[in-house]
């Protein structure tokens, strides 16, 4: 049985979602704000977090940030009625599994919760927005969350949570071929990097795999599955 944490200052809304998830056979803890959520997160590990974005005292981006400091492997989703919410950018830098609208699509929520993986964050370093979006969605189908960068300099602004693996193009704006990979590994020593590129040059460092564009998505996901299964146990 899985156990999830729902954070929303609207207690009735949170309890309604919790009851739906409980009816599907899992457990849910409810917090009305970030402070209460932190207390709960320090007492046990949850399989996923679902938080509202707009709340008094501590918004959803801050909730994700602070809970990830307590439990770095926690998969996180946010719910918002404001698609243009400025705080979403900050939340996305933490690596979200999904951003869901209000009212929440229940079927989609249950599907995402069931597939959410602890310690499942992947860094996607790709300057083609269409390719980046496709990779992020493909990862989501396997329960992996993504944090993205589109240039060499953006690799240094990735969120503070360590990914378990990275997908990295060799040619990106802001530096010579392979520079993004070098900076990524310098920031996260020992990070397994799968090169996904159409550039024929050799990667500057040893990589965990290489896929030439256009690539077989299923094979790429299978390679990530193997890396996830082989990752060191969380402390």
TrEMBL record:
Transmembrane segments: none
One Pfam family matching this protein: Response_reg
InterPro entries, A to Z: Bact_response_regulator, CheY-like_superfamily, Sig_transdc_resp-reg_receiver
Record key words, sorted: Phosphoprotein
Record-annotated Response regulatory domain positions: 3-117, 121-228
Keyword Calcium attributed: no
Modified residues (4-aspartylphosphate): 52, 169
Keyword Oxidoreductase in record: no
Species for this entry: Anaeromyxobacter paludicola
Protein name from the UniProt record: Response regulatory domain-containing protein
